[in-house]
Amino acid sequence: MTRRRTFAQKLSTLIEGARASGGVPHSYRELSSAIDETGGPAMSPAYIQQLATGKRINPKIHYVEALAKLFDVPVAYFFDDQVAEEVDRGEAPRADGAGEARLMAMRAQELSPEGRRQIMDLLELVERYERTDRDKPTGN
């Protein structure tokens, strides 16, 4: 059974794992610099510490993407407990789409109402196309 963990717990697991393996810088300052060096958004050492300790929650998606890139994990790691456990065990994450769907929803929250309407229209169009494609009789 998958155990539920907070964003802070998952980030702390990544930080501690990196320290143990020597794969990523150790201090919050070094983490901040490493994110900056990879072209990620500016994240202060204090902000990273607040995320890791749970004092700050619900970071904007571009921060989550930067952390995922730094630790070389899928973004879904932070939103899907099953993916997080598989990554932590060194297994390939499942591609079931649940984490991806949550990521899409989080990104959509940052859009204007008009942008969200456009995304919904696009989703409806893609869904209609896939339904039509799926319902086509196969030629035997």
What can you tell me about this protein's structure?
- This protein has 140 residues and is mainly α.
- It has 2 domains: 82 residues, 434 Repressor (Amino-terminal Domain) (Orthogonal Bundle); 38 residues, no CATH class.
- The protein is 63% helix and 0% strand.
- Helix 1 crosses helix 3 and helix 2 crosses helix 3.
- The mean pLDDT is 82.
User: Largest beta sheet, briefly?
Assistant: none
CATH topology of the largest domain: 434 Repressor (Amino-terminal Domain)
Strand proportion? under 5%
Cα radius of gyration in angstroms: 18 Å
Q: CATH superfamily of the largest domain, called what?
A: lambda repressor-like DNA-binding domains
Helix count equals 7
Topology order in helix (H) and strand (E) letters: HHHHHHH
The low-confidence runs, each spanning 5 or more residues with pLDDT under 50, are none
CATH architecture of the largest domain: Orthogonal Bundle
How many domains, as an integer?
A: 2
Blueprint (SSEs and pairs):
Elements: H1 7-21, H2 28-37, H3 45-53, H4 61-71, H5 81-88, H6 98-109, H7 113-135
Helix pairs in contact: 1-3, 2-3
Properties at a glance:
434 Repressor (Amino-terminal Domain), globular, mainly alpha, 2 domains, 140 residues
Summarize the structure.
This is Helix-turn-helix transcriptional regulator. With about 140 residues, the chain is an all-alpha fold.
